[in-house]
Amino acid sequence: IQAAAARYDNDPRVKWVVISAGMYGETIPAEDQYDACLSSNGLTSSGWVNTVNDITNIYHNAWHNKFLFIQYAPYFTSRLERRDFTDYAGSLGIGMKHNKLEVDGDDRVINDPGYLYYRSGQYDPMLTFMDQLPSAWEAYRQQFPNETVTYWSFLNALDKHPTYILINRLLITTLTPLEEDVLNFTNRYLGRTRSDTPSVWTALRETEYTWYPQRGNYSYWLYQNDGTPGGQTVPLWNVTSDPRGRYTRRTNGASGNPYMYFNVDDGYVFGGTNVVSITVTYLDQGTGSWQLQYDSVSDPNEVAFEVQKHNTGQWLNVTQVLSDAQFANREYGNDFRIWNGGDDDEIIHMVNVARLSHGEEVSVVLQPDGDYDGVTDTYLSSWEPDVNFGTLGRISVRPQDTFAGLVKFDLTGYLPPNVIVTEAYLDLYVQSRSNESNWMEADVYAMRRAWNEVQATWNRASSIMAWTVPGANGIGSDRSGVMLDRQRLDEVGVWERFNVTGAVAEWASGLANNGLTVRGSPNTSGQVSYDFASSEAIDLSIRPRLVFTYVLPVAPPTPTATATRTATPTPTRTPTPTPTGPPTATPTPGPSQTPTPPPPADKVIPAALALQPITVDGYLDDWSLGPGELLDRFTADYIHPRGVPEPADNSARVWAAWTPTMLYLAAHVTDDRLVADSLDIWRDDSLEFAFDGNLDFLLTGEDDHTFTVAIDGRVTNWGTIPVLDVERAVEIVSDGYVVELGIPLSVLQASGWTFGKQLGFNIGLHDDDDGGDWEHYMVWEGDSTVSQPQNYG
What we know:
It contains ten helices and 43 strands. By secondary structure, the protein is mostly beta strands. The longest helix is centred in the first third of the chain and has 18 residues, at 45-62.
């Protein structure tokens, strides 16, 4: 232990360490069947606690710069051991790690002070030290047989405010779209505090277990209070087949409890004038109405909004931005409440409150109508894989991935950057179907690759770019794998509304708007096609609509305002010159076939020998990352005069590694706004790697390449030539994107590959902040990545 700490305690690749006290690194000496054997040979319960504490001391004395975790759930002969060795570890600042995430169970929270095993339940150590010490979970597929269990298990995990969750490979590789959403949601809240959490929330539930389970809701700094007069709720189970209805609560108007009361943690919001958004997920059951009332600056029971129900049987979300929330606990110690309106009761799944530095709510409706002409759409057909349908008046979808629709709304001038998108919906009008016997379900995903309305086919995104997988089925490169919404199609002459808030929020945060794809799910009663009206439909009123709401910054906060789109034509971009960095699709050869070698390069990127092949997946956890080489405004040899970016706007750090058969490159690009909306890869956010493989200072041979990698996964050679034999991955991260390439040495035609081998190398970085052409272009060495190899590093 001491030797490991001496080597890795200051190593940035190591973030935290588990204390391995017993079998499997947990706090148990052996399998339960050997307890009698161990006891008969002298091991006592107190002796085991002392042993665990001694081992904890060894770790604590050796490691000084890493989080430590005790894997505390199992014990030897008494659950009191669990309390004793976690109390000791907690007193040393050591975190709690539970290695079996589950949805519910007995022996979770033993909260009776008069009981022998008080504070010895499985969750008691996490709750005892919650928000004081880090905590972690382990999650395995065998604990999650279906989506509902997965959903509620991860809500259970977040209820303890964990720092980390370890997830086994089987679970990761078998995630359903809903489970991917669950994990993405979970990731947003790991390691957060009251000051930096994206929101606070509570998921309403009650346990079905009896022997010291965890009772009440799963909450994240938002608390529903059953003890308030008039606010006693009724727990429900298995309300609808939707995971949100597995556990829930309702008001109980018949017994004089028409309210649900909620209290925001005072450390998140308390007093003053605050701008917040509140989202309520409710079951649209019955035909009554309900209100949300809140503690405002002027009234402790101000009405935020009223919802009229329509008895659809669906779980729905309603979001409202409040610009004058005081939240000073003036509603019987609470901050807001739901009132059932005096008629039928309200069934609520979740309430989410986000603190905003914004105030004015703006609603936008976009539909091709003569004033707005920014919609492009088509559909892809596996039956006719090389035929384009972009001029037709319909967007067809069919189950089993037979037909897939594409639609994109140009949001230039309508969606400001970095605003909070509170809701967004794609409305499509069903104008016909192939038969009246069958229904189907349609799913919506965000597109990741740019496509051309009059060129896209089942096989190609455009005339010059193929889909990674036909039908735009390349997950991560052609489209997202996260389903935004699903709707059942079973009639014509109706509008279908798809919730696409996640996609529009991504576009507002800087991810490229490549539109949406509507695809038939496997769920259908039989073979059938449904046709939505396209932007070419003769009847303007049934063309596709995008309806969304965002919140603009204002100072000081003002009451919520609603605006609609004005009849302004789509802005036309002024043509801009082709970037100087890569001026043509053909490299400029060197000045002669026998040039004089230039002096040694003044910039060098060393490539480290990798002891085993690197997995090219966009994650750099299998790299031994040194300082790398930085490309930014201060280190670039050339910066295009269009603009000089600050490092937080655009910069890149690059690393290299090699094996006897491969060259690997990795880069972390810092980019505050991600855009990929052009067919020309050099006009989008992209990173260039240029090679003079034989170091002959010529760019005319098979050893010479300029590989360009865009944020949507496209890779080209010399700007236009598709690249097939290079492994590639792009991963979008919070501050930009990560690029990883694996290049066979045969591609570089580099002979004598061994220690000390040198190649000509250069880096270029494009930055597109607002669509169209790029704003910034930098080159690491020299002033070009497609010419002048004598100036390469």
